[in-house]
Amino acid sequence: MSRVEQLEQAIKDYQNVFDVFNTGDSEAALNARRDRFHCAEAWRQALLIYILRVFKPRSGSTQKISLISRVVLDHVRSIRQIDLVQKQVLLPVFLAGSEISDDYGRQSAQNYCDFWTEKNRYFLFSQARLLLEEVWKERKDSEIDDFWWGVVVDRHEQESPEQISYQYLLG
Fold first, then answer.
1. Could you tell me which of 5, 48, 77, 131 has the fewest CB atoms within 10 Å of its CB?
2. How far apart are CA 18 and CA 86, in angstroms?
3. DSSP H helices in 100-122
4. Residue 101 contacts residue 135 (beta carbons within 8 Å)
5. Residues 107-132 as b or e (16 or more Cβ within 10 Å = b)
């Protein structure tokens, strides 16, 4: 078993420590614990997307990636926006949003970016939205069924010397 396969198996086998409820906990403590559960699960599933897309691109996993992307966005939507832990899932939102093809999932990724852009006034979230929109446009224009969003990100980092190149910080 390769190191990547070992890592993938460890991620799949991970037992989320926030999935335990103590009957004596207050409602606030239970809600906070549930938000952390969904945050950890969004990250765990996003890592699986990354492994499948980057290390196993020829494994015929397009449908699996699409399903995992939906799971990631479901977990993100389950985190209450009043909890700052939700803003910690930008990279999972980007990875899942880059892979999702349905309008509802894409709208969910946009709403996440818009909410945190407005709340924080920090360009990181608005830049992620613009990058997602570019990925979606190129995916639509592409004749490739298994579109790799990394080409869009790489292009921004390899622009001509006269232009400012970007390095994206997504989390």
1. 5
2. 15
3. 103-120
4. no
5. ebbbebbeebbeeeeeebbbbbbebb
Interhelix angle 90-99/62-78, rounded to 10 degrees, is 140
CB-CB neighbours of 46 under 10 Å: 26
Over residues 82-119, the pLDDT tens digits come to 989 999 999 999 999 999 989 999 999 999 999 999 99
Angstrom distance (rounded) from CA 57 to CA 108: 26
Q: pTM for the whole thing?
A: 0.88
DSSP code string of 37-78: HHHHHHHHHHHHHHIIIII-TTSS-HHHHHHHHHHHHHHHHH
| Residue 54 C-alpha from the chain's centroid | 14
Are the CB atoms for 121 and 102 separated by under 8 Å? Answer: no
The residue among 100, 102, 98, 129 whose CA lies nearest residue 113 is 129
CB distance 39 to 88 below 8 Å: yes
